[in-house]
Amino acid sequence: MSDDGSASPAAVLRSVVARAVDADLAELDGRIAVVERGSQSTRGEAAGSDSATPAERLAELLGEADSVVAVVPRLDADLARRLNASLKVGDGGTDGGTDPSAPRSARVVFTGSAADRLSGATGPVVRRALADRGVDAYRHDGESPVAVALGDDRAAVGLIDDAGVAALLWTRDPTVREWAAATCRRYLDAAEPASGG
Q: Taking every annotated instance into account, which residue ranges of this chain make up the domain Methanogenesis regulatory protein FilR1 middle (predicted)?
């Protein structure tokens, strides 16, 4: 996505989101936080987070939310493990960070290779694990160039590569949240509920 191929995943992700919301990158940069795999540096809201990796931060953001809607193009083992721990319904997760009595609504659209995991050999196990966590899973036949999630009042966008989540951007910025909501809605409208269990 970079013209010269040398841009960092975080830089590419900031550029992708700025183009998606038709915003000036310099102006948007002050309203977002980004973490990149292999880097300790973050911006904005990230200063209060102990998360060292994009997958950790994504799981943390979604685990804190009462309502989640997401589009996921790839689900690697590390992200699945982290989300599993953060989305446990009724037990507050492993660190007690969520309210065990809080109602949770989670709708996730799996697209691309993530959708294949719902229908492949491990599909029944994956669907059952999602259902046990209160996640309504949907399958989309297309692709998504990025992961997009809304957790309560925050939008998160992840740049995915062969090793998982390369960079994660999150924000409470209304423009990015509106784009993320429209993106999730578009994928949900074109998806089918994952069947079986």
A: 106-189
